[in-house]
What we know:
Elements: E1 5-8, E2 11-12, E3 15-16, H1 18-34, E4 38-44, H2 48-55, E5 61-66, H3 75-89, E6 93-97, H4 100-113, E7 117-121, E8 123-129, E9 132-140, E10 147-151, E11 157-161, E12 177-180, E13 212-216, H5 227-236, E14 239-242, H6 244-249, E15 269-273, H7 279-282, E16 290-295, H8 302-305, E17 308-311, H9 314-326
Parallel strand pairs: 1-4, 1-6, 4-5, 5-12, 6-11, 7-11, 13-14, 13-15, 15-16, 16-17
Antiparallel strand pairs: 2-3, 8-9, 9-10
Helix pairs in contact: 3-4, 5-9
Amino acid sequence: xxxxxxxxxEQRLGKLLPVSFELLGKGYELSQNLEGKLSAVLVGSxxxxxxxxxxxxxxxxxxxxxxPRLSLYQGDFYTDxxxxxxxxxxxxxxxxxATTTGTELSARVAAKLRIGLTAHCIDLYIEHTxxxxxxxxxxxxxxxxxxxxxVSRTTPQMATVKPGLMTKxxxxxxxxxxxxxxxDVKEKDLKAETIxxxxxEPEEMSLEEAEVVVSGGWGLNALGGFAxxxxxxxxxxxxxxxxxxxxxxxxxxxxRLIGISGKIVSPKxxxxxxxxxxxxxxxxxxxxxxxxxxxxxxKAPIFEIAxxxxxxxxxxxxxxxxxxxxxxx
Length: 329
């Protein structure tokens, strides 16, 4: 077993996904605490140039597999390949981006190797347990404003991280090593073959790019829906978002869901209206520059992270807030 920290360097159409750079940042931090090396697994067709890009961000080893048949994600083959690599090399830690591909692949590899996998981590750090350094994996609790600490007893210790949650790695160029992994892709290895990836049409203004995000929760039910949220967002030139209960109610599409099961954002201004502030929700915007929260419960967890908190009934507060924003007061 090595003290290497591996990241799954996910690429699409010959370009590393942003979450790969975020994993490099956290992976480097963990490898330094372990006094080990930061490594990556890179799979695709004609992607060797990306290995050198990984070196620019501190990656000392890149396990590289190239084949024209692997230009797109192939579930069965990728699972067998990653399982074999992990079983042979036994790195200490493996980090995956919680993308569609990363979520599926990490789960399949964990099942094949019969090892643990912690999903949707919001923090990761090294802590000594019984004299051994172990990866502490923090996930949101599913009851109230809780965060759960998980320590895996299997190795490699594996975790997925939501894109946008970690800070992108700064450039720290190293002279790394590319380790080619020879493969022979056969038809039987591609039982279900990916033949095309269709990208969704981009929204007029994505949540991740917006400077102002106005988000509503279940408290908007007392006002009959999301009209005040939409009006405030329009005044400020921002975008509308919401909580899981707001999505379940049909007030927002899934693409506007904020939190660990939705989008992670860090706008200049985040306004939360009528949401108590469960960890699953607040994780989605904790890195915002300024957080304004409105809720009628003075003990709501949302006020623990808000820069500006307004306690009061939404039916009273929101009309006044809208008038103030319009300059009518």
